[in-house]
Amino acid sequence: MSHAEREDAFEPEPARGDGAPLLTVTGLRKSFGDHEVLKSIDLSVRRGEVVALIGPSGSGKTTVLRSLNGLETPDAGVVDVAGELTIDFSEPSDRRSVGLLRDRSAMVFQHYNLFPHMTVLQNVIEGPVQVQRRSRDEAVAEAERLLARVGLADKRDAYPFQLSGGQQQRVGIVRALALRPQLLLFDEPTSALDPELVGDVLTVIKELVEEGWTMVIVTHELGFARQVADEVVFMDDGLVVEQGPPGVVLGEPKQERTRQFVRRLLSPY
Fold first, then answer.
1. What CATH number did the domain enclosing 102 receive?
2. 102, 128 in Cβ contact below 8 A?
3. How many whole angstroms separate alpha carbon 17 and alpha carbon 15?
4. DSSP codes joined into one string, 86-120
5. Which residues pair with 30 in a beta bridge?
6. Edge-to-edge order in the sheet of strand 35-46
7. How far apart are CA 254 and CA 184, in angstroms?
């Protein structure tokens, strides 16, 4: 992607869920040994839309995200990004192009994944400078602006071990934004946090939602999914069991497996 194209990709979309498809996934499959983790997943995300992936542990949610970010290579399936990049993973030549997905998406990890030997600023500018080959001065200026936005301007020279979990996750979000992605991917962004720190991270994500960023969020926070998602996708055993608006999937699910899952999370005791 050229620098000019990155500038365009950095701007959030103007309206939530009203645009053309940004991401279309068809027949995505992935196995680890004899274990089939994804069994022909279909998924569509429109520009400016927020899609929440929910489901029990081991259902394949994180593998979907990692496949969209080029961290896993699916065995089969087609991923199309905005009609500009289409990868058919059944074709060996296309599978070698998986790194191109990283030019279009950025991942916020469950356990932060910050480089422990780097300062906050160094963590944020590493991708823009080393991978995207942007100038260091430009990357630093943007990093400082983004850190100020999430209330961490005074932490630019701190190391990850000097930060709380919530602060580390906010740095993780800033690191993703600094890559100027078209698609933001969140993998259980609050599950590793102490309860009192969850709110700060969710507030940042809500602000990004309001700005119109396109997101796929794996979460177990059903109340949060109901608030921010345009579409909720319930996965189980490598399959999409049910999908639709949050009021339907979380409020009046049609499938018994979905009802069991939602009931268990909303009334765990």
1. 3.40.50.300
2. no
3. 6
4. EEETTSHHHHTTGGGGGGTEEEE-TT----TTS-H
5. 38
6. 35-46, 21-32, 76-81, 85-88
7. 29
Residue whose structure tokens are 């997905």? 101
pLDDT in tens, 67-112: 999 899 999 999 999 888 899 999 887 777 777 888 899 999 999 9
Question: Is there a contact between 191 and 110 (Cβ–Cβ < 8 Å)?
Answer: yes
Q: How many domains does the chain have?
A: 1
Q: Give the tens place of pLDDT for each residue, 116-152.
A: 999 999 999 999 999 999 999 999 999 999 999 999 9
Q: Domain limits at 106? A: 3-115+185-266
Q: What is the pTM of this model?
A: 0.90
Written as one letter, the residue type at 145 is R
For the chain, list the strands marked E by DSSP: 21-32, 35-46, 50-54, 76-81, 85-88, 105-108, 183-187, 215-218, 231-236, 239-244
Does a structural domain hold residue 128?
no
